[in-house]
Design brief:
Elements lengths: L3 H13 L6 H11 L11 H11 L3 H20 L1
Length: about 80
């Protein structure tokens, strides 16, 4: 049985940047928090929120979103 105090101390070390969880640990944390693993690698809150919102879409919706984003990028580049 895992000691909850050890887990709390470990999470605190991750939060303070003293230790970095390995990928498998990040996958377990992401699963508990119901976010994609990539969420932890986002550089800002807005990008993380966009990623989190996109994660619940089905594949067809994700493809449509990708097309839409690419169209916005092309339009922005043409300005």
């Amino acid at each position: 049985m895992r000691n909850p105090n050890n887990a709390s101390a470990r999470m605190n070390q991750y939060e303070r940047g003293e230790h970095t969880p390995d990928f498998d640990t990040l996958k377990r944390i992401a699963n508990v928090l119901d976010v994609p693993v990539a969420y932890f690698y986002c550089e800002n809150e807005l990008t993380a929120s966009i990623l989190q919102a996109a994660e619940v879409l089905n594949e067809e919706q994700k493809l449509a979103l990708l097309v839409s984003i690419r169209e916005m990028v092309i339009t922005e580049k043409e300005k």
